[in-house]
Amino acid sequence: MADIENKVWLTQLRHLKRLLAANDPTAFHAAFLELHTWEQAQFFLGLNRSERMALYKVLSASEVGDFFDDIDDDEAQLTVFLAEMRPEFAAQMLTEMYIDNAVDILEHLDKATVNRLLAQMPHQTAVDMRSLLHYDDETAGSIMTTEFVAIVAEQTVASAMQTLREKAEDAEMIYYIYVLDEVQHLVGIISLRDLIVNDQTKKVRTIMNERVISVQVTDDQESVAQTIRDYNFFAIPVTDDENHLLGIITVDDIIDVIDDEAASDYSGLAGVDVENTSENPLKAAVKRLPWLITLLFLGMSTASLINHYENLVSEASVLAVFISLITGTAGNAGTQSLAVAVRRLAFPDQERSFVQSLLAELITGLITGVVTGVTITLVVGVWKHNFTLGFVIGLAMCCAIVVANLAGSFIPGLMARLGFDPAVASGPFISTLSDLTSVLIYFSIAQYFIASFVQ
Prior knowledge:
- The chain is mostly helical.
- It has three domains: 2-134, MgtE N-terminal fold (Alpha Horseshoe); 143-253, Roll (CBS-domain), CATH 3.10.580; 281-453, Tetracycline Repressor, domain 2 (Orthogonal Bundle).
- The chain is built from 23 helices and six strands.
- It has helices at 2-21, 25-33, 37-45, 49-58, 61-68, 75-84, 87-96, 99-106, 111-119, 123-133, 140-143, 157-167, 192-197, 204-207, 221-231, 251-270, 281-308, 310-315, 318-321, 323-346, 354-384, 387-417, 427-453, and strands spanning 148-152, 173-180, 186-191, 215-216, 235-239, 245-250.
- The strands form two sheets. A three-stranded mixed beta sheet has the order 1-2-3. The chain has a three-stranded mixed beta sheet with strand order 4-5-6.
- The longest helix is centred in the C-terminal third of the chain and has 31 residues, at 354-384.
- The radius of gyration is 30 Å and the shape is elongated.
- The model has no long low-confidence stretch (mean pLDDT 86).
């Protein structure tokens, strides 16, 4: 079924491209507007510059704005598209977009371009956009929209429905209607369903829910995402310190936040930017080199440590066989622990403190270390006919796994407490650090038992 749908979609794309190339604006316009806005966005992203320039001549700024809301491409790429448009066309298109999406694009433009575009917008739209532009990145204010429906507590249901009808077209979300007092304080919330089913003569204050879950405009976007997730909201109101309603954050923006945070976590675990898959190879190399050079020097510390135990290795060359086995297994354990720690920091466990989580990871490390250690002890003992050697390998592996587990769990938490991005404690960093500690543990134990397994 999916293959059939893909073939139909590809046929539609080819048909639209032919109409655009044939300079048949009427036929193209009609066929294009039959598509869903997401499909329109995908078609647009598949065009080259000359084709996009032709499309701008066929569609109105309002029609382009409709599908720009559905473009989840890199904002930097969106600014390239914006530069292709006439300034008045671009300003009108941004005006037609949801305000939070338009502001996301404006944030990536230089100040002069922003001022030039805002100057060509309706006054109130420009004022609203300027108010959103000054909020810090990754805060509730930076992802909220001011396009919502608000009513006052003393209105009747009939009056509230009339207000809703008047404002619904420009609102991003109408499932929740927010109730304000005379000085714009948020005092309640009411659902569209409640307005529909209640008597038209009732006062809003008699049917509204006075227990409103809201977030502060300065709250971190991750905590906002967690709140919406916990309460299963479609949207959440954003207030200032005095409980004035400033805007709302809708679930589609929260999905974007979760995607961004997940990509950030994956980037941290890998030590690279996983979002920019089509980046220029030279730019990608420049971005990756600092981490690789840093890890190279850390890896040289491991090499120096092995060199320090050169006499031990020459005395019992069999020890060299198991270095990569111990360091690799410990590194894997550390990366697993790191993934859990980063996840825990993104979505905090209310039932466990940092120390409790660390203790749990220690116990997990002990269990996995003992099981893995016993297994490798038996394998090496049977393979090399030397259970003392097997015990050394097993004990070293057990200790290395416990230490790697603790490091993978502790370092991100420590960085978060110090105000640094936990993603800096990336997978490659933990693995390299684990190599260093594993080699130290391994040779320290081997040195103690050397007389027992060297003939």
